[in-house]
Design goal:
The structure holds 2 protein chains of 2 kinds. Chain A has 19 helices and 29 strands. By secondary structure, chain A is an alpha+beta fold. Chain A has 3 domains: about 190 residues, Aldehyde Oxidoreductase, domain 3; about 325 residues, Aldehyde oxidase/xanthine dehydrogenase, molybdopterin binding domain (Aldehyde Oxidoreductase, domain 4); about 140 residues, Aldehyde oxidase/xanthine dehydrogenase, molybdopterin binding domain (Aldehyde Oxidoreductase, domain 4), CATH 3.30.365.10. The chains are: A alpha+beta, B alpha+beta.
Chain lengths: ~750, ~160
């Protein structure tokens, strides 16, 4: 292949490394209104009165809006396909405030300074209500987060707002209780993952203006332009034809921007005032009023026979969606459906879950989307099972892991068309030096070196739901334009989709320009999430290009006065094989634009009935200081099966980045609330993400399978890569100390205290 | 608020302006179309707003614009040639990813390489510890720096990719 599989540069690399103004705030009109939010200081309260008279007197203030000024139709901010599984439980401004940080007032004015002054002058009287802060006590608590009758669930997700239930459900195969009772060995554990933040470097940011036709134009740092358009249409009560949403370059997303966190406020201001406006979230707002990972507590029981055959896995997940249900009903599913299927020959499984409302910040989508939480639990339990069986954990996994061709009952009954997990695990163990280093070595200086291992999986789309589309057209000089509504948020999807187009069109990647995402000009795409862009939009690109080549050949046949099967097209010229007459691609492009009824432009959509899992294995070597509990990552080896690797450089950096985020959530990133439900870690001073000093060596390799339903055999890579660090590091810590930690983060303090108590 | 007048050299050009005394250097610079200067936090933790004040790297979110009076300020807009050279090595790894941290990180890397043209990996990690990146896991950036330094050591000869 000429383009696919090549480590070429990202198409936007030069602009990004030169610091060009390509992000939302760089592009906002300089005279636009500045929009800011006054946020609730209480976890649960009702607004009794808002006195905005003094604020309105401040020079430069354009408008101040309260709950009385906004439409009363509820909606969800979750970027999901309609009908959204997430309940309609939001208003733009609500009289009932459900978490510290919930918006109370929207203020807009000429400058940041005047809006800041106005926010200070607004007097709000609150009726403070008792709050539900502990998610263990949320279900059937007399305090209801959503008592309102206008709350609405569009899908049968087991929701009941009168019980603080955002969703609940159960699935199983075989009789788990009976199989577990027969097992020679069982392990049981409950694992707690907190609501960690995506912490993309660019905070949430949106600007809006009305165009020549009076339409609302929204430019935003978002992964989901089409969903944002629908959400704004529902929330503002205006037709979709009146709204255009586009995204420029995005300064990182990781799922945070799969929720419409910031768009609604400037959209409302511009729609009401007719003036351009923008909102730039502060880091504090980005930390405290956004869309972090769902806090989950995952209880696992695993049963095996004496020889180490894993026979049953039973998972119960309690998930905390916070004040609103964004992604609540869906993230939880992955905690079972994308952890249990790692093991291929179960006699039975069961997966039960509850998703509860609490008076904390709403959760959202974060890379891994529930699978991360479930895999921490299941893989930790498997490591404990190995210990109990006195078996090497690599050997235990080789005996039980899912293999190509197996049906996965816990994964919606899908069959693994492509699976190189066995090769991934063998190579990972080899890279880390498992045979020599497992389980630990005492260094004789108070430090222990140990290793830990885990496997991971994800999906490649939401089967039967996600739609990817691509429009490809031939320009009159023989170059192409590819239009997409998938969102490159640094991932490089613009580039890898161009590689796929170039491969299909038999042209250089440089000849394919990429445009998007823009609801006015890009064909419909659900957006970049659920690891779907390579697999779903990639296939749409491939299909559009194959169809365009067909049309190019027809146009050439008309010009060469022959049948299409009599000509040869090599990407740059078509030859009539009867007489050797030739037309160039440029001539074909020009001919299509003169006296022609045949547009050399094709749009194709693609959806998939399956979501082939990418797989991976990860192993870590740590050095643990027994006195301080400090864990140093010495080496992390990871091997990924993402099907065909479209761009090895970008796949590698995606993997390294995911590992770093996984290491951060395992060791440092700690969301803490005080007893009033106020988030303590509201800045990068307190919320510690890994710096380059915290990273040891990260080593990444690939073991490719070939996925027959994917473009050029590809699956996904974006999310799977965050799933192994938590269980692998917890395993290494256990191998160093004998202590199994069940709650993240596993801080030095916890380790040191654990060793003292031992 | 009474305005004050400041004069400074910004990317080689003299600038004189009346400003509010509490104006931060980051906002002054963005007002002057230096959009490479990004705001990632408000607490001097992320390194995205790194610029040179008299050729030394500073965090412009934590410096008052008034402090630049009589001094020289350089942003990535004024260092395009050096940025392009180093940027190519970052691009060769795909390590720029979302790009939002790149300007601050490249500014600080340029400062490091001016100070210490042959840094070890540990020296690179320590000098750039305050430049956070959430996309890359830092490994690709390190590979890029190593390749760049080797290229410089060979006298800037372009190696075959």
């Amino acid at each position: 292949m000429r383009s696919v599989g090549k480590p070429i540069r990202k198409k936007d690399a030069q602009a990004l490394t030169a610091g060009k103004p390509v992000y939302t705030d760089d592009l906002a009109p300089k005279d636009c209104l500045i929009v800011k939010i006054l946020r609730s200081p209480h976890a649960n309260a009702r607004v009794l009165e808002v006195d905005k008279s003094a604020a309105e007197q401040i020079e430069g203030i354009e408008a101040i809006y309260t709950w009385e000024d906004v439409p009363q139709e509820r909606f969800t901010l979750a970027g999901q396909t309609y009908p959204e599984p997430s309940p309609y439980d939001r208003l733009i401004l609500d009289r009932h405030l459900r978490h510290v940080g919930d918006p109370v007032v929207i203020a807009a004015g000429d400058s940041e300074a005047c809006v800041d002054r106005a926010l200070k002058k607004i007097k709000v009287k609150y009726e403070v209500l008792p709050a539900v802060l502990d998610f263990h006590q949320a279900k059937d608590n007399p305090v209801l987060v959503h008592p309102e009758d206008s709350w609405k669930s569009l899908c049968p997700v087991g929701a009941n707002q009168k019980r603080n239930l955002c969703a609940s459900g159960e699935s199983c195969d075989g009789n788990v209780d009976a199989v577990l009772a027969e097992c020679d060995v069982t392990v049981q554990g409950t694992y707690h993952v907190k609501a960690v933040q995506q912490t993309m470097m660019e905070p949430f940011c949106t600007f809006c203006y009305l165009d020549t036709y009076g339409r609302l134009n929204v430019v935003s740092s978002t992964q989901i332009v089409y969903h944002v358009r629908r959400i704004l249409s529902t929330a503002l009560g205006i037709p979709k034809a009146e709204i255009r949403v586009s995204k420029p370059r995005i300064g990182g997303g990781f799922g945070a921007k799969q929720t419409s966190v910031s768009e609604i406020y400037p959209a409302f201001v511009t729609w009401k005032t007719g003036k351009p406006s923008k909102i730039v979230f502060s880091r504090k707002e980005t930390q405290t009023a956004s869309s972090p990972r769902h806090e989950m507590e995952v209880s696992v029981t695993i049963g095996a026979d004496r020889t180490g055959r894993i026979r049953a896995i039973d998972v119960y997940t309690l998930s905390n969606t916070g004040a609103y249900g964004e992604h609540g009903p869906t993230t939880v599913g992955l905690s079972g459906h994308k952890s249990i299927p790692l093991y291929g020959s179960l006699d039975a499984y069961r997966f039960v879950y509850d998703v509860v409302y609490t008076n904390r910040m709403s959760s959202g989508a974060y890379r891994g989307y529930g699978a991360t939480q479930g895999i921490f639990a299941v893989e930790s339990a498997v490591n404990q099972l190995a210990q109990k069986l006195h078996m090497d954990p690599v050997e235990l996994r080789m005996k039980n892991m899912v293999r190509e061709g197996q049906v996965m009952p816990a994964y919606y009954g899908e069959e693994t068309n492509s699976c190189a997990l066995d090769r991934c695990l063998v190579l990972t163990a080899d890279m880390i030096g498992w045979k020599d280093k497992y389980p630990c070595r005492d260094m004789g200086n108070g430090k222990v070196r140990s290793v830990g291992i885990a496997m991971g999986m994800q999906g490649s789309c939401i089967s039967h739901v996600d739609v990817g589309s691509a429009t490809v057209k031939l320009n009159e000089d023989g170059t192409y334009l590819l239009s997409i509504a998938a969102a490159d948020m640094g991932t490089g999807c613009d580039t890898i989709l161009a590689q796929m187009a170039a491969e299909s069109l038999m042209c250089p990647v440089e000849d394919v320009a990429v445009s998007g995402a823009d609801t006015d000009t890009s064909p419909y795409d659900t957006g970049s999430y659920a690891s779907s862009t390579t697999y779903i939009t990639g296939k749409a690109v491939q299909r559009a290009c194959v169809s365009l080549v067909h049309r190019i050949r027809k146009q050439a046949a008309r010009m060469l006065e022959c049948r299409t099967n009599e000509l040869k097209f090599d990407g740059s010229r078509a030859v009539n094989q009867n007489n050797g007459r030739t037309v160039t691609l440029e001539q074909i492009g020009l001919a299509s634009m003169c006296d022609s009824n045949h547009a050399l432009q094709v749009t194709k959509s693609h959806s998939s009935p399956v979501s082939p899992p990418p797989f991976m294995a990860g192993a870590v070597e740590i050095e643990l200081d027994k006195e301080t509990g400090h864990v140093e990552i010495l080496d992390y080896a990871a091997v990924v099966d993402c099907g065909t690797v479209i761009n090895p450089n970008l796949a590698r950096v995606q993997t390294e980045g995911g590992l770093a985020q996984g290491i951060g959530m395992t060791l440092y990133e700690d969301i803490q609330y005080n007893s009033e439900g106020k988030l303590r870690n509201n800045s990068l001073m307190q919320y510690k993400i890994p710096s380059r000093l915290d990273m040891g060596k990260l080593r990444v390799d690939f073991q490719s399978s070939y996925e027959p339903t994917g473009p050029f055999g590809a699956k996904s890579i974006g999310e799977v890569v965050i799933n192994t660090p938590a269980p692998a590091i917890a395993h290494a810590i256990a191998n160093a100390t004998g202590l199994w930690f069940h709650e993240l983060p596993i801080t030095s303090e916890k380790i040191a205290m654990g060793l003292l108590e031992k | 608020m009474t305005k004050i007048q400041i004069s400074l050299t910004l990317n080689g050009k003299k600038v004189t302006e009346e400003i509010a005394p509490d104006l931060l250097l980051i906002d002054f610079l963005r007002n002057h179309r230096c959009y490479s200067v990004k705001r990632g936090c408000e607490t001097a933790n992320c390194g995205l707003c790194t610029v040179f004040l008299d050729e030394k790297p500073v965090l412009s979110c934590s410096v008052l614009a008034a402090r630049a009076h009589g001094h020289t300020v350089d942003t990535l807009e004024g260092l395009q040639e050096e940025a392009r050279e180093l940027g190519e090595f970052i691009a060769d790894q795909g390590a720029e990813q979302c790009g939002f941290c790149n300007p601050g990180m490249i500014m600080n890397a340029i400062a490091l390489f001016r100070e210490n043209p042959q840094p070890s990996d540990e020296e690179i990690k320590e000098y750039l510890a305050g430049n956070l990146c959430r996309c890359s896991g830092y490994e690709g950036q390190l590979r890029a720096f190593r390749a760049y330094l080797e290229y410089k050591e060979r006298g800037g000869a372009v190696c075959a990719q």
